[in-house]
Amino acid sequence: MPAKSRKPLISGNWKMHLNHFEAIQLVQKLSYELREADYGSVDVSVHPPFTDLRSVQTVLDADRIPVLLGAQHCHWEDKGAFTGEISPALLAKLNVRLVIVGHSERRQLFGETDEDVNRKVKAVLKHGMTPIMCVGETLDEREAGTTEERVSGQVRAGLVGIGAGEVGGLVIAYEPIWAIGTGRNATPEDAQAVCAAIRGVVREIAGADAAGSVRIQYGGSVKASNAGELLGQPDIDGALVGGASLEADQFAPIVRAAHG
Length: 260
Ligand code: PGA
Description:
There is one protein chain. By secondary structure, the chain is α/β, with parallel strands linked by helices. It has a single domain (about 10-255), classed as TIM Barrel. It is built from 13 helices and eight strands. The protein has helices at about 20-35, 35-40, 55-60, 90-95, 105-110, 115-125, 140-145, 145-160, 165, 190-205, 210-215, 225-230, 250-255, and strands at about 10-15, 45, 70, 100, 130-135, 170-175, 215-220, 240. An eight-stranded parallel beta barrel has the order 1-2-3-4-5-6-7-8, surrounded by six helices. Helix 1 packs parallel to helix 3 (about 55-60) and helix 1 packs across helix 13. The chain is globular. It binds 2-phosphoglycolic acid. 2-phosphoglycolic acid (PGA) binds near residues 180 and 241.
């Protein structure tokens, strides 16, 4: 695979899986599987449930494991009367580096709107962390031929009011909703076409430099067997991995596929 100018980012979204003991075991196993060459060529992040963050942070620090700590979600306010919510300030204090924003499960099951996503992207940036802003179409939208319209709209709405310099440092995850957890991934060609369209929207709103540096991940049933082809596409700079990130021996080959 030709080296890309953008360092690939492979992120494990653990969703509502693994207690803190299991989380510690998984990062330790992952650290046995990954080599210096992997970390040198690929950024790797894990996104455990909130209750695991402190334990995982401690292991990463103590064992000097160069995996980036991530969260799955946050509120946009720094603090306040928001029972059950977690603020970006609280995450930053735990050395969280990347925060998934607007995952389709949050949008579909918990009613997050494009406006909420935009507020969260800004809040995450304000605290010096990197948002992984998720976009993606439903099966109905795909079948109606409106994928690019839908995804472009989500990208535009999510980036309202964010400066060009900051847009270039973002991560956008293209996750077709029908491909998440279904074992049915988008074809590399289809995923590439949508990721190229997303880069085009970023170019339009934030300029060529931002478009050249923004990292675009593909997500939706990524596994060791399909990662190579997906990650080989010119506009796919990484993967957001759900199911296959829960086992170190399934996740590590995806990291390796990102650098051939
Ligand atoms: P999956 O999930 O890899 O299990 O399809 C991806 C995601 O939801 O981020």
